[in-house]
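Researcher: Let's do a round of design. I'm pasting the structure tokens now; please hold your answer until I've finished.
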């Protein structure tokens, strides 16, 4: 598949790879690269081997979902599907109910178990709870919808980017503070992708790793500062691109 740039190599790529289509994460990264202004973007330029994407005929990019992983006998298993739904609802509500003019901020954490309440139930509960909590924003309070879903709001010592910000989540084996989770799971993914690309490295002069963030759904300025205060993850990639799973225009180049 080709996205932009009518050169001979790209035309041959279309002819030889007509049935190839990007998965969700690859399409999101392609959209992000287009948003950044890159013009020549090829999907799987060499077939079903690394890299996933080739930019400007020289930048090889491997794509991976940045998710929470549970170690199993067969490797690592992602645990983010239910989290997608719940987090998307709550992140929108946190933005909607946050006042533009505010002095105090709070983190919002949530716990869920199966069966998870419906989207409609979660939305109604969270909207009412967060609006009412503003009068108690300096207090740490847990609100329980039922035994399968509860929200905890705890004050921030500093003013955050908005009045309510995502702090943590818990789902069985998953959960924890967002920055530490991103850091921990990024280390696993980097090691996995370094091994996968090792024998293809000499084909292109520049290699990037692009990850689609399903943990924090993007890093705020404060998150990025906390991430950079952790020991640097040494790696063999020229650039590390992190893109939000819910907004292809929200991205960071890590360690830059």
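Researcher: That's everything. Go ahead.
Model: Designed sequence:
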């Amino acid at each position: 598949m080709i996205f932009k740039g009518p050169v001979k190599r790209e035309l041959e790529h279309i002819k030889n790879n007509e049935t190839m289509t990007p998965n969700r994460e690859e399409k999101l990264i392609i959209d992000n690269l287009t948003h950044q202004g890159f013009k020549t973007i090829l999907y799987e330029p060499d077939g079903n081997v690394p890299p996933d994407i080739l930019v400007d005929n020289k930048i090889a990019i491997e794509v991976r979902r940045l998710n929470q992983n549970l170690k199993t006998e067969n490797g690592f298993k992602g645990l983010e599907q239910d989290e997608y739904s719940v987090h998307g609802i709550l992140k929108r509500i946190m933005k909607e109910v946050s006042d533009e003019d505010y002095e105090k901020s709070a983190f919002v954490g949530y716990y869920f178990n199966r069966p998870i309440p419906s989207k409609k139930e979660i939305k109604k509960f969270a909207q009412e709870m967060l609006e009412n909590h503003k009068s108690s924003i300096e207090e740490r309070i847990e609100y329980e919808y039922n035994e399968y879903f509860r929200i905890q709001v705890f004050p921030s010592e500093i003013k955050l980017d908005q009045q309510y910000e995502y702090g943590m989540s818990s789902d069985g084996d998953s959960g924890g503070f967002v920055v530490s989770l991103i850091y921990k799971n990024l280390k696993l993914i980097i090691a996995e992708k370094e091994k996968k690309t090792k024998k293809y490295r000499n084909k292109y002069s520049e290699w990037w790793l692009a990850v689609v963030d399903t943990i924090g759904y993007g890093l705020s300025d404060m998150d990025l500062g906390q991430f950079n205060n952790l020991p640097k993850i040494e790696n063999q990639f020229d650039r590390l691109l992190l893109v939000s799973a819910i907004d292809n225009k929200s991205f960071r180049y890590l360690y830059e």
